[in-house]
Design goal:
The chain is of the alpha/beta class and about 475 residues long. Helix content is about 40%, strand content about 15%. The radius of gyration is 26 Å and the shape is elongated.
């Protein structure tokens, strides 16, 4: 299967670039797939990651790049175009963002099978917190863009309420619920010996919009009165629309040795950062879907404390995460929550173990395998519909084999194998070498209608092409 993955991609730091990298990494490991990443353009001087076929064919906030993206898809002619999207993936300006979100529809109209992984909905985003002006314009454009995205062949969302909104409000039934995943092949067992001496409180993310640090710093001052050895570790940099925010917070906290700013943390340093943290905190004022930070914390077995927001409640319930909630915007509530957790070692270990257990079910290999099974089912359904049309043709027609090859030309290799089972002699096919114990290599009983029409049964070729289904357990090696 030939797949084009449309996403921001490292070394780009655009939204979802890390998520796109981990999807591409898992697809690249599958030898039966041919992957091309259609990514955002980079400034001069940046080199591509080794081992990936990447075409930089669109630019952030540039409408002209959308036409180049469509031209690239048309030239590559993939079996599947997979879009990894936020509503702001293609730009912050309304025109660039809207035209980019119409790309899945245009790609489908050109004949490609399109799938969209949609990480948030415009219907649930707090636009004021996100720093958006002219909210009414964004809401109207967002509703039209959502309808355009739903005209893709299929859409995946990461929170149950999103699927309900798309089904009920927009009347679509091609929406699937998927897990976010932990962005790694397997989680790491929590190292409790590295935690609690002193307690390290971790706040991690891209800061400056609805993710702000003022509340966290105010709450930490209250925590430090009861736990004087505690430290606050702040990881990550500025949100693209809030340049200079982290630097201003550094200046504000310059005289406090208990607050440490780590800046950007490379992926190979994440383990060291999270394993040494007693708790991960998400002091957000609103949410835009599932939290990647929460899933990173699960990957290392770290307890989570976050604002009591609807998206996070559903995330915790649906994925069985151990999260302590505090009232949004309340520094006292956040401080009380942290003090109670950090003074209870047994609760910390129980929450860490529960999050590690949840992470075992959300590894990226397991997640991507579920996507591929969905795509495979679609391809097989297309082929079966093509085969069923041949049954209506007269039995004497001599070119059924050629027509079958033509109708299934864009399907997976198993359909081509199916075509070779049709004998070109008078449109009648020889029975496949079944052996049900009668010693004659044929099935017991009468032939099916499809066999009488000269078409061999499909199930003969399915078993050897069926992918191995992972058990959801992590390989300890």
């Amino acid at each position: 299967m030939k797949i084009c993955l449309v996403t921001t991609f490292p070394p780009s730091t655009g939204g979802l670039s890390e998520y796109g990298f981990h999807i591409a990494q898992e697809l690249q490991r599958n030898p039966s797939l041919n992957l091309t990443v259609l990514a955002d353009e980079l400034p001069p001087g940046h080199s591509e990651l080794d081992g990936f076929s990447v075409e930089r064919c669109w630019s952030y906030d540039r409408t002209a790049g959308i036409f180049r993206l469509l031209q690239t898809i048309n030239r590559l002619r993939p079996d599947l175009v997979w879009f990894n999207l936020l509503f702001s993936t293609f730009g912050r300006s309304p025109l660039a963002a809207f035209s980019g979100l119409m790309t899945p529809l245009f790609a489908r109209l050109r004949g490609s099978y399109t799938h969209v992984t949609l990480h948030h909905l415009m219907d649930t985003v707090n636009l004021k917190d996100a720093g958006v002006r002219h909210e009414w314009l964004y809401r109207a454009a967002g509703a039209v863009a959502t309808r355009g995205l739903l005209l893709s062949n299929s859409v995946s969302v990461l929170i149950p309420s999103y699927r309900k909104i798309l089904n009920d409000k927009y009347g679509r039934d091609n929406v699937h619920l998927r897990s976010h995943g932990i962005l790694s092949q397997r989680p790491e067992l929590p190292e409790f010996s590295r935690r609690g001496n002193p307690h390290r409180i971790l706040a991690f993310g891209k800061w400056g919009t609805y993710k702000r640090l003022e509340l966290m710093i105010e709450a930490f001052a209250l925590v430090a009165k009861d736990l004087p050895d505690a430290k606050l570790i702040i990881g990550g940099g500025d949100h693209p629309s809030a340049a200079g925010y982290i630097e201003s917070m550094k200046q504000q906290c310059a005289g406090d040795p208990k607050i440490e700013f780590c800046g950007y943390v490379p992926e190979d340093s994440l383990s060291e950062l999270f394993q040494a943290s007693s708790v991960a905190v998400m002091p957000y004022s609103s949410s835009t879907g599932c939290s990647g930070v929460a899933h990173l914390a699960c990957a290392y077995g770290v307890p989570i404390v976050c604002a009591d927001l609807a998206d996070f409640r559903q995330m915790a319930l649906g994925e069985e995460l151990a999260i302590e909630f505090f009232p949004p915007g309340s520094a006292d509530g956040l401080a009380d929550c942290l003090i109670q957790l950090l003074q209870d070692a047994a609760k910390q270990q129980a929450m860490a173990s529960q999050n590690f257990s949840a992470a075992l079910r959300m590894t990226m290999p397991n997640l991507v395998q579920k996507y591929l099974r969905h795509f495979e089912v679609h391809q097989r359904s297309q082929a079966l519909r093509a085969v069923s049309r041949l049954r209506k043709l007269p039995r004497w027609m001599p070119s059924k084999s050629l027509m079958l090859r033509f109708l299934t030309r864009n399907s997976a290799g198993w359909t081509n194998d199916l075509a070779t089972r049709v004998s070109p002699v008078n449109g009648r096919g020889a029975s496949p070498p079944y052996d049900n114990g009668n010693g004659r290599g044929k099935r017991n009983g009468a032939r099916t209608t499809a066999e009488r029409d000269g078409i061999a049964p499909v199930d003969a070729g399915l078993e050897r092409t069926r992918p191995r289904i992972p058990t959801g357990k992590c390989d300890p090696s």
